[in-house]
RNA sequence: GGGGAGAUGGCCGAGCGGUCAAUGGCAGCAGACUGUAAAUCUGCCGGCGUAUGCCUACGGAGGUUCGAAUCCUUCUCUCCCCA
């Protein structure tokens, strides 16, 4: 295959990135690659400490996909070994570490989910336990001798934790080194990561130099804030739009982001090109259009990206009906009553609330409706044979038969 | 090795013998308002019970006491200072 011109390639590569370090080296690599018709090795490490991916992960996976589209060799490194360390990047706490087995299981789910973004056929998948697990203690000592404590402490989260007197375990220093070894092992040309990965990526560069390799360029991508618009998207904060979310959920969650996140979401979550982003900026700036309508566009674009345009259409209709017109959805889970039961019990048993106490509270707060009628009686009983749609809060529904 | 401080609900952080299911703040949930949101206001915010109430919970284990998150012993963990 022949590569696009370096200029063209750079257009796509630059899209949505935060930093390219150093850019001139990347240009050189692209030129050489084109001249020799040899794809660059583009590395992305994934942390299989959690099985679920969200559209925040999608940002960097999408960038890897861009490189695939340009004809380069994408390599997904499953950090099964490093998961045993638990990367503390961007956190103020030590992360729980996983066993190799747990990591492997999560990784499988991870790969399955990445398929919606990556071209799985041309993707090279490797597990870093393969080489890291093979290192012995003297290898590790040799590796650690290449970095100093002062440099390690430069890393933002280490600095913070050190200053705020929260514990830092020694083994956490090994994480960046281990990740760097991955680059050495792969002879990576480029490594991708979120901005919180910058330090680790740079360590990879340094280590490659130590091992006499041509050091990788690093490309960082902005971290996508979650639906709250403040915290980085993460399951921990409960602000994520998961890849496994249904089209309806993805659409609905997108609609709930704050207005000032719209442009960023277009760029990072909907993979919009510069023209589209500019168009959106203009529309928002002129003040004539209701931002809600722009957000509807966004919601559809995101759902379309992951589920196709039919699903996007359906998701929008569903939203209009359920949320805007406060109607009930066409489809919902059903439960069958075996005997007369308290409403409270039915709600809690169906999992609409965590406990009966919560169900009671919601009823008292006028948040529960039976067939559209507010039910404020916590002693309300449902009889067998009656058919009801129970609505709890704004978006929890169940049909009782 | 020596000395000091500390461990409280999802998080931060008060409490320092009874009135503590534990002040505040954040997060979350619901209602009102909206553009679906954000902001704002109001309510809720361990479990079970309609409820007086009961159970579980202030790092772990013992103990003192009529009564302990609060006192004592011990264990585990963390931080700081000195060497």
Q: What would you say this structure looks like, in words?
A:
The chain is an alpha/beta fold and 401 residues long. It folds into three domains: 6-221, Rossmann fold (3-Layer(aba) Sandwich); 245-324, Tyrosyl-Transfer RNA Synthetase (Orthogonal Bundle); 334-400, Structural Genomics Hypothetical 15.5 Kd Protein In mrcA-pckA Intergenic Region, Chain A, CATH 3.10.290. Helix content is 45%, strand content 12%. Strands 1-6-5-2-3-4 form a six-stranded mixed β-sheet, with helices on both faces. α9 (174-186) packs across α10 and α14 (291-307) crosses α15 (309-324). The longest helix is centred in the last third of the chain and has 17 residues, at 291-307. It is globular and about 75 Å long. The termini are far apart. The mean pLDDT is 86.
Relative helix content: 40-55%
* CATH class categorisation of the largest domain: Alpha Beta
Radius of gyration: 25 Å
Strand order of the largest sheet: 1-6-5-2-3-4
| CATH architecture field of the largest domain | 3-Layer(aba) Sandwich
Number of domains: 3
Total strands? 13
What coarse outline follows from CA principal-axis ratios? globular
Distance between the termini: 61 Å
Average pLDDT figure? 86
Biggest pleated-sheet summary: 6 strands, mixed
Q: Which spans of ≥5 residues are poorly predicted at pLDDT below 50?
A: none
Find the CATH superfamily of the largest domain.
HUPs
Pattern of helices and strands: HEHEHEHEHHHHHEHEHHHHHEEHHEEEEE
- Annotated CATH topology of the largest domain: Rossmann fold
Portion of residues in beta strands equals 5-15%
């Amino acid at each position: 295959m022949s590569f696009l011109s370096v200029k063209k390639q750079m257009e796509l590569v630059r899209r949505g990135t935060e930093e390219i370090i150093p850019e001139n080296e990347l240009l050189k690599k692209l030129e050489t690659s084109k001249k020799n018709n040899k794809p660059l090795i583009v590395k992305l490490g994934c942390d299989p400490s959690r099985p679920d991916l969200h559209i925040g992960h999608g940002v960097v996976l999408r960038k890897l996909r861009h490189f695939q589209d340009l004809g380069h060799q994408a390599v997904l490194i499953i950090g099964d070994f490093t998961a045993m360390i638990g990367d503390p990047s961007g956190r103020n706490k030590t992360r729980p570490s996983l066993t190799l087995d747990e990591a492997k299981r999560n990784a499988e789910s991870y790969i399955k989910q990445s398929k919606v973004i990556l071209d799985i056929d041309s993707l090279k998948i490797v597990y870093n336990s393969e080489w890291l697990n093979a290192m012995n203690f003297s290898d590790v000592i040799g590796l650690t001798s290449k970095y100093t404590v002062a440099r390690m402490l430069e890393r933002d989260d280490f600095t913070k934790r050190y200053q705020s007197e929260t514990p830092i375990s020694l083994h956490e220093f090994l994480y960046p080194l281990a990740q760097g070894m991955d680059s050495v092992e792969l002879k990576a040309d480029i490594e991708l990561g979120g901005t919180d990965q910058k330090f680790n990526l740079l360590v990879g560069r340094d280590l490659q130099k130590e091992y006499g390799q041509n050091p990788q360029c690093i490309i960082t991508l902005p971290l996508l804030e979650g639906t709250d618009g403040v915290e980085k998207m993460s399951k921990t904060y409960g602000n994520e739009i998961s890849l496994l979310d249904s089209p309806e959920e993805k659409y609905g969650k997108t609609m709930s982001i704050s207005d000032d996140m719209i442009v960023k979401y277009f760029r990072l979550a909907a993979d919009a090109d510069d023209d589209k982003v500019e168009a959106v900026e203009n529309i928002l700036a002129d003040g004539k259009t209701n931002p809600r309508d722009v957000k509807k566009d966004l919601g559809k674009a995101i759902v379309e990206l992951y589920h196709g345009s039919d699903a996007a259409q359906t998701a929008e209709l569903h939203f209009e009906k359920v949320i805007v017109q406060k109607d009930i959805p066409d489809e919902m889970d059903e439960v069958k009553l075996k005997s007369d039961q308290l409403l409270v019990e039915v709600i809690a048993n169906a999992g609409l609330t965590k406990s009966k106490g919560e169900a009671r509270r919601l009823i008292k707060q006028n948040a529960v409706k039976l067939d559209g009628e507010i039910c404020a009686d916590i002693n309300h009983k449902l009889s067998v044979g009656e058919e009801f749609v129970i609505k709890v809060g704004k978006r929890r529904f169940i049909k009782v038969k």
